[in-house]
Amino acid sequence: MDIGLMPVPDIGIEVDRFLRANRTQWGTSTVEEFRPLSTFDMESMKVAARMDWTQVDLEFPARTRRGYVYMRTYYPRWLERIDANDLDVAGSTRCVLGQMYGHYGESLEMRIYGGAWLQAHGFVGLSGEPNDYALDTVRLTNYWRGVITRDRMGVRR
To answer: Is residue 71 left, alpha or beta, with left meaning phi > 0 and alpha meaning psi from -120 to 50?
Structure first.
C-alpha cells in the first residue's frame, strides 16, 4: 500500500546521479564513504521519504539519536570528517551535513528527504520564530557535540 504523503524521486536514480555528479567534484571524500545501498536500503529510503516527519518526537535526544543512527548506518567513518569544536547546527557549512558535504544544501539527504526529515533527525533547527530557531540550533549543537564526544570515547547508548 502506497501511503503517498509526498511525491518521492526514484531513490536509486537520485543516488546514482548524485554520486556520479559529485565523484569528480570531491574525488575521494563523502561520496566514496557512502555505504553501498542494498534493495532493502532503497525501499527504506522510499518509505522514509514518504513519511510525515512533522508528526514524530521532536525532543532533542530523539532527534539527535535518529541523526546519529542514520550517520553510523550510512557513513561508517563519518566521525573522521566532523570537527566537534567547529560544529554549529545553524551554519550551513559547519553543521554535521555541511562538514560532510561542504554545504548541507548539497547533501543527498536534502535532495531525497527535505527539510522536515532534516529537522526530525537533528540536522537543522525547527523553523518558527527567529528566537526559537536560534535556541533550537544552539541546543542541537550541544546535543550533537555530546553524541560525538561519547562516540569518540567509545560510549554508545
So the answer is: alpha
